[in-house]
Amino acid sequence: MPNKSASGKISILIGHFNAMSCELIDSALKRRATFRVVAHANTSDEVLAAVRSFNPQVTLITANLKDGPLSGFVALRQLREFRPELRCIMLLDSPEPQLVIDAFRAGAKGIFCPSQSQFDMLCRCIRRVHSGQIWATSAELAYVMDAFASYAPLPIVDSDGRSVLSTREEDVVRLAADGLSNREIAHDLALSEHTVKNYLFRIYDKLGISSRVELVLYAVSHARLTETGNGASRLSV
Questions:
Q1: Domain range 167-236, CATH architecture
Q2: What architecture is domain 10-149?
Q3: What is the side-by-side strand order in the sheet with 58-62?
Q4: Fewer CB near the terminus (10 Å): N or C of the chain?
């Protein structure tokens, strides 16, 4: 069980895309004697920097940060890699099964939906997660168990050692992972939006995934950006 900070309070980092929401959560937590908010962050980079600087014991992170859709999941995965002992709670607008599964897969120790629970329950969630427990409803745990039962590692290369994705599909993955919409990807790659949708269907089928969240996590976990000869970046797996 992790110890409390030197002040005797649980130190907390709030990662939220909205600065005003950070202030509101901070203000509410300050009224509880057991908590101490050490920093706010609005982007994934700020989350990582704040964890390094302030060494919080618990982080509250929204799924979407200011630097793009699903960037909270990216920050969560990176935190798990360099601070595996850190207790992270993912704040979701609603407990959609795939978001719940991907949050725990990325390293969350708890799931909390502010719109569906009272603030007292958030405080209880923080204390439980800090003590080493997992915070989730029975339904959310059922989602994770079902996913675990059917889990298979994502393919990166085929039996001949070649990438399972074509160069163009890798480009689509890179832009989707950057938070671009289908329309923006189409514009960037000089394709029709319909063609981009077809690429995504094929990518999902090849990788055995079913959501954009899993696609982002695939890109973070299995891909690296390299520079092509003409100076453009492309995804290399």
A1: Orthogonal Bundle (1.10)
A2: 3-Layer(aba) Sandwich (3.40)
A3: 35-41, 10-15, 58-62, 87-91, 110-112
A4: N
